[in-house]
Amino acid sequence: FLEVPGLRSVFRAREHFHDEYFEIAHTFHFDSTSLRRLLEANGWTCLQSDEHVRALYAPPRAEAAALGPALGSIDTSEDARQALALADDGIDDVESLLDVLRGSGMRPSQVCFEVGRRLHDEGRSEEAVELLRTAHRLWPDRGRYAYQLGLALAAGESDTAETVEALRTAAGLMVDAAFPQHHLGLALQRAGRHEQAVGAHGRAVELRPEVAIFRYHLGHAHFSLRNWHRARACFAEALERDPSLAWAAHSEGLCWFQLGEFDRAIAAHERAMALRDEAAFVHRRDEARSALAARQEPEPQPAPSGLVVTLRRLGGRLRRRIGQSG
């Protein structure tokens, strides 16, 4: 019995689990057809297979009677798959779904994870948290479980320290996955730990340099530390990768304002305004305009002191007397 993600099904999963799939130490990656060709060429008989690839093969000269219990476990696993497929459209009765999955032979940690993940996807994060805590407790070395727990905690009103700890665990276990690092950075920012957030966001950028939103949030971590030049560079790089990021243009304008480059701040905010209708963009653009106008106005000359006025009068009288004497 083989059960691994098939190439035709893995990309239906959520994006942030793709990296984890390719971390699996497989020499070859199969779909149902290529796996069947390989095994049948070596004398095995395919009894059942799908694109996940959950497959049952009989070796040469295998006794059919010996395969009965294995076929039964395939049927049970299919019940679980169908129940989870229905749950993808919404979970009406959590306890009933849990009972079906527990009776299917799934690991208790996997049962809690699958139901908790779907509850989180429905926006029911508070319900999801307890199930995901259980999954993480039962299998603490499973990075995916720690990551999903961290996401659910971050979505609710949960303790920030627990959120950071879950995401830090996930990032440590999924060392080549960018999204756990990204979400760890966001949690650290919410906790006010901006220097650590820079490290997590920077790691996400290293792993996936093409993702604009990673650079955008790295810029915000630098902005919180008043690293205006570094923050501005991050926002500019985010815009290069995704020119539709209005908030990145706006944030670049905020950096230019802090650097005293008011004309560039105006241009950045106007770019943001062209992308999205936000009152904050207009307000910051007008603020930069006022600062630029104030700089361009000539400074008023100070009024002459009383001594200066007196000396000027004396000088005028003296010139008149000299003129009369001449």
Structural class from helices and strands? mainly alpha
- Give the CA-CA distance, first to last residue: 125 Å
Placed side by side, the strands forming the largest sheet appear as 1-3-2
Q: Strand fraction band?
A: under 5%
* Average pLDDT metric: 81
Main sheet attributes: strand count, strand direction, barrel closure: 3 strands, antiparallel
- Assembly state of the chains shown: single chain
**How many strand elements?**
3
* Shape label: elongated
Low-confidence stretches: 12-17, 69-76
Enumerate how many helices there are, as a single number: 17
Verbal overview:
Helix content is 68%, strand content 3%. It is mainly alpha-helical. The chain has a three-stranded antiparallel beta sheet, with helices on both faces. α8 packs antiparallel against α9 and α12 runs antiparallel to α13 (228-241). The longest helix is centred in the first third of the chain and has 20 residues, at 68-87. It is elongated. Mean pLDDT is 81; it is low at 12-17 and 69-76.
